[in-house]
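Onboarding guide, step 5: your first structure request.
Type a short instruction followed by the sequence, for example:

Predict the 3D structure of this protein.
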Amino acid sequence: MSKNRKDTAKTVEELEFLLDRDGWICFYCKMPFEKSIVWHRSVSRDHLNDNPNDNRLENKVLCHQDCNIIKEHFIDWKILALEKLRMNEMAISPEVTSAMNKAKVDKSSQIDINQIVNKETDLFLQKFLPEIPIEGMQNWLDFNDTADSLTELSQNKFSVGSQDAYKRALSARCSSAGKFRKVEIDGRFRIYRKGN
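The system replies with structure tokens like these:
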């Protein structure tokens, strides 16, 4: 195969990859490319970091030729380009890809995880800080210990839920709209049921 044919095959393969990854729209203006025989005349490959010698696929996007020229003088698009490069590098990194495949967290499963965190937080608080106090039962919980306990229980039961997620859920329940309050005593935060 001649050098020109190899270059053409590589170019076609690269275009297919970029179109699959980013779609038939200009990365900058988000307007679609014209799907016609001459569409390539208005399309340009841009180097996200403005280094024409960095020809990694994660450093390239497709855009309109005009947008590629405008990017040179438009700081918002330069920032957008660098963020895209960072995201592309993360997505292509074997460590990140492996971690993402292992976690398999998409938007719908993230909603499921949040539902689990919220439900488990409510059940835990109801059990250990009931509305009607039980004689002899402590009327407060240590905030950090509660987050740690919820994280451990959730990891064992569902294999999901982080300490940060439980701290956010607990803080929400201690907000002015929540049924609980968070009080600092001796440098530690305690959770009390409002009204007790």
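Each response can be followed by summary notes, for example: The CA atoms of residues 147 and 166 lie 5 Å apart.
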